[in-house]
Amino acid sequence: MKFALILGASGDIGQACARRLASKGWSLYCHYHQNETRVKTLIENLEKKYPRQDFFSLQLDMTDEKRIEAFTAQLFEVDAVIVASGQTIYKLLTDTTSREMDQLWQMMVKTPMLICQKVQEKLARKKGSIVFIGSVYGISGSAMEVLYSTLKGAQHAFVKAYGQESASLDITVNAIAPGAVRTHMNYHWTEEETRQLLSEIPANRMAEADEIAAVVQFLLGEHARYITGTIIPVTGGWKV
Predict the structure, then answer these.
(1) Taking Cα atoms as reference points, which of 109, 222, 240 lies closest to residue 231?
(2) Is residue 240 assigned to a domain?
(3) Which Pfam families match (predicted)?
């Protein structure tokens, strides 16, 4: 049985990854920070549907570096790590505080790197895989989201470098760079804002979370073992 750690399993993309991987026989460690109820509900549903598999909920504040050791100690087998956690700050660079920079750096880059460091030996034993949910903004950048774009670019750079370093261990390391995805992050947009966005996307729609999860599933499969250190845009033709 294969085990995947999903960082950010309470988010829409994390939940889609959990449902899709569980349907393919994976057991899961589902991480959350504050949204315990959403992850507990997810796990209850998965346990009913797939009683032969194991599902665990694990709490971690990704900005609390002191707890990483105890967090990773709970992971007995790890075949894959999916990094789907993170958040954005929508403001000008000049309005972004040093504390916000530190917190998002820790959450989106440093803590995932430390977790990868801790589980490398487990992944190497299983010919494992790491997949980051990056962003098209890590490729093209976005005004008003300079910090977020910078950190997504850092995730992409980590994937390219660590993918080279870990290839000899039979660990693949890749990132998916979604464009606009229909998630809770954009439910507050006005109709006009949504219309303007869709007019810029050649596919004329946002991606569904499960479409991102489908690429994650592929990257964890046997047919993707020769893909590593790669960023895969999934954008409907937008901003690439």
Answers:
(1) 240
(2) no
(3) adh_short_C2
Say whether pTM exceeds 0.90.
Answer: yes
3-state helix, strand, coil in the chain (%, to 5): 50, 15, 35
Q: Which residue shows structure tokens 């569904």?
A: 208
- Amino acid in position 57: S
* Mean pLDDT value of segment 104-115: 98
Is 218 inside any structural domain? yes
Residue 223 included in any domain: yes
> Taking Cα atoms as reference points, which of 63, 73, 140 lies closest to residue 104?
63
| Catalytic residue annotation | 148
- The CATH number for 139's domain is 3.40.50.720
Q: How many structural domains comprise the chain?
A: 1
**Residue-number span of the structural domain to which 99 is assigned:** 3-234
Task: Please compute, for residue 147, the number of CA atoms within 13 A of its CA located in the half-sphere on the CB side.
Answer: 23
